[in-house]
Amino acid sequence: MREPAHVARSLYPFAGRYLDRHGLRYHYLDEGEGQPVVMVHGNPTWSFYFRNLVLELRRDHRVLVPDHMGCGYSDKPAADRYGYRLEDRIDDLEALLDSLDLQEPVTLVAHDWGGMIAMGWAARHPDQVGRIVLMNTAAFHLPDDMSMPPMLSFVRDTRLAAFLVRRANLFSRGAGWIAPRKRLSREVRNAYAAPYNSPENRLATLRFVQDIPLRPGDPSYETVSQVERGLALFTSTPVLLLWGDQDFVFGPKVMEVFEKYWPHAEGHHFPRAGHYVLEDAAAEIPPILRDFLERHP
């Protein structure tokens, strides 16, 4: 297994920690002190995506940010050592938070497939959830009036895409160009792709997409059903939805589904932001999030 490429400390000034998961290293950040905030990334990002929020909130919160197995600075196991299913991701997050023995309810902050993982954990531990903040994500099956984006279908269902993802880093490199609406610097784009610097290290970025369930019988279909049923447990929990309207995967219609489940949710649209909403709305989101946390202690 090749080690991830180095990311400059000026961009990622954190000292990570590791949890042993059956002989595999599960990397996470544990920064600051105070009420716990758990940030859960999606694919093909890693804890780097939340770097600016970590710096903002660690002044008065304990900020916990795992790298999913196969992502970031976590180990990159072969498929015979790790399942790469949604349930495995939820189990990992559960093991981490159990190991930390947190004494206060947590605030969940999640993006992309991290929303499915975070809400999967939340459905198992509703009494431990104090607040929910979601950004361009889903926690339910694909609605009947929506279709899977062609790019994701290509990656999920074709051998050519699997080859390109593993050999040419198609998913991570491609996302660095098209997920944000504003152009990222080369240094930031390289940092996003740094953990995925060999074909062996890119397995997770492929398996995340291949694991998206579309019909009963798909391996993670019932897990998503459990996550979706769990949304009803949080109809009185403070919820903040932060949405990049130019997202080519989780557009505004996806946010509307959350609002049907949670009519009480506070919603903020960012009309010029794309899928990487934290990059496109880097100045706007931190004060909105901090105001939400202060109003819902």
Give the secondary structure arrangement, pairings included.
Elements (H helix, E strand, L loop, with lengths): L16 E5 L2 E8 L3 E6 L10 H7 L3 E6 L19 H15 L5 E7 H12 L4 E9 L12 H8 L1 H10 L1 H9 L7 H8 L9 H8 L10 H10 L8 E6 L7 H10 L4 E5 L6 H4 L4 H11 L2
Helix pairs in contact: 2-3, 3-9, 4-5, 4-8, 5-6, 6-7
Q: What's the gist of this structure?
A:
The protein is of the alpha/beta class.
Written description of the protein model:
With 297 residues, the protein is of the alpha/beta class. The chain has one domain (17-295): Alpha/Beta hydrolase fold, catalytic domain (Rossmann fold). Helix content is 38%, strand content 18%. The chain contains twelve helices and eight strands. The protein has helices at residues 51-57, 86-100, 113-124, 150-157, 159-168, 170-178, 186-193, 203-210, 221-230, 252-261, 277-280, 285-295, and strands at 17-21, 24-31, 35-40, 61-66, 106-112, 129-137, 239-244, 266-270. It has an eight-stranded mixed sheet, sandwiched between helices. Strand 1 (17-21) and strand 2 (24-31) form a beta hairpin. The termini are far apart. The model has no long low-confidence stretch (mean pLDDT 93).
